[in-house]
Amino acid sequence: MEILSLSALEIREKILTKKLSCQEVVKAFVEQIKKCQKYNAVLEIFDDVEEKAKEMDEKIGQGFKGKLAGVPIIIKDNILYEGKICSCSSKFLKDFVAPYNATVIEKVLAEGAIILGRANMDEFAMGSSTENSAFGVTHNPLDFDRVPGGSSGGSACAVALNMCPIALGTETGGSVRQPASYCGIYGLKPTYGRISRYGIVAFASSLDQVGIFSKTVEDNALMLEVIAGGDEHDSTSSQTAVDNYSCFENDCKYTIGIPKEIVQISQGMACQKNYQNFIDSLKKKGFAVKEISLDGISLCLPTYYILAPAEAASNLARFDGVKYTSRNKEAKTLQEIYKKSRSEGFGKEVKRRIMLGNYVLSAGLYDAYYKKAKAVQGKIISQFDKAFEQCDLIAMPTTIGEAFKIGSKPSNPIDTYKEDVFTVSANIAGVPSLSIPFGQGENGLPLGIQILAKKFDEKKIYSFANSFTKGEE
Ligand code: GLN
């Protein structure tokens, strides 16, 4: 039996019916991770996985039937798993051991998941390629010379290369959907507040959310069912009831909104033809397609690159060489500890964001940048509210084109920031969005289309994706 290509649901079913043991499953995936080492997707395979698999086999033998019983997963390196290193792919935190479990970790473990290891990422989740990792770039699973996307590039690559059926990532401005698109898999950014952020290393707290990578819609929905929900440890998590996301609605007569501004922005981009193909296939499949407007959507990118660095500058202040991180050996005074430790600990992009964030928050410039960006965010939220009065879902490209070559955007960071032009709007508005694999670019590499919905309408997105892709097969 080809274990590696099974979905999480299939693995669970085979384990519960004793066709496979959890130990066999874990062994197969661990071997695959080792075989794929050259991609540099996984920073560490946890040393207790065999033991955990054995325990799970015993538990299942006693009648345990968790939703993820025996399912191996991989987590991004910014999610706290008690007793394991959580480095955020930063050399500053390379020896930091998580003192407690993130809520998402508690939840997946309670349902029987086996956490195989931690995945590479852009340092502190800042980037779109994993080139900002202190531990080397991750390679695209379909073209070794290209990036897998980022910042959750390791998680995406791991799923695409069958190192696990599901992986967790995080999103602040596209870090799950963009790599999902580059690697040809599904990637969900849920509604802000849908999943607890407790135990996730903060980047920009008002935007951060855990996200899910999978090869099937069903697996993605299953994982959301497990990890969604309110949490007393995170006051921004929502108490809104958790849907049974994996029970798809059958009658998906949804109206899909196509924002005219997005059509315009995509003119001349590598994604343009694919977007049109998607719209055509929506019509062919009988979905109602409606032109809508998201006025000011092009302001999302500059807004994001003010708000996210501003929050990052505050959040990263805690890494000071005293707590959490490594400390410079020569520093003699407290000031020197801060200065020297942070100077040698943080990578270039992280330093850039901290400087940018402190700049837009500085007394004389706060009104012109941060305050203005917050006002624009308010306008964008109301544009989305208006749009969802006219349609159920909105479709737009996930990325401007295929995965780019490693090292092709080194000098000007703005070039990389532009990668996020389509993804950041969902984060700014706090709405859910799923990137689904659709079409290919001129080099034969995967492209993605993202489907956005009103807050807490993830079930509608999954139902659409299920009915759309079923028709594709
Ligand atoms: N590329 C974006 C950035 O660098 C997205 C990051 C993210 O979603 N974590 O900020």
Describe how the helices and strands are arranged.
Blueprint: H1 8-16, H2 22-35, E1 42-45, H3 49-61, E2 72-76, H4 103-110, E3 114-119, H5 153-160, E4 166-171, H6 177-183, E5 186-189, E6 209-214, H7 217-227, E7 255-259, H8 260-265, H9 272-284, E8 288-292, H10 300-315, H11 334-345, H12 348-361, H13 367-390, E9 393-397, H14 413-417, H15 424-429, E10 433-440, E11 446-453, H16 458-472
Parallel strand pairs: 2-3, 2-4, 7-8, 7-9
Antiparallel strand pairs: 1-3, 4-6, 5-6, 5-10, 9-11, 10-11
- Output the CATH class name of the domain at 3-227: Alpha Beta
Q: Beta fraction of the residues?
A: 5-15%
Alpha carbon gyration radius? 21 Å
Helix percentage range: 25-40%
What ligand species are in this complex? glutamine
The name of the CATH topology of the domain at 3-227 is Amidase signature (AS) enzymes
- CATH homology superfamily name of the domain at 3-227: Amidase signature (AS) domain
Quaternary class: single chain
Question: Low-confidence stretches at least 5 residues in length (pLDDT < 50)?
Answer: none
List SSEs in N-to-C order.
HHEHEHEHEHEEHEHHEHHHHEHHEEH
Looking at the structure, what is the overall shape? Answer: globular
What is the CATH architecture term of the domain at 3-227?
Answer: Alpha-Beta Complex
Structural class determined from secondary elements: alpha/beta
Mean pLDDT, rounded to whole units? 97
Q: Tell me the number of helical segments per DSSP (H or I, 4 or more residues long).
A: 16
Biggest sheet: strand arrangement: 1-3-2-4-6-5-10-11-9-7-8
Q: Got a strand count?
A: 11
Distance between the termini: 23 Å
Largest sheet: 11 strands, mixed
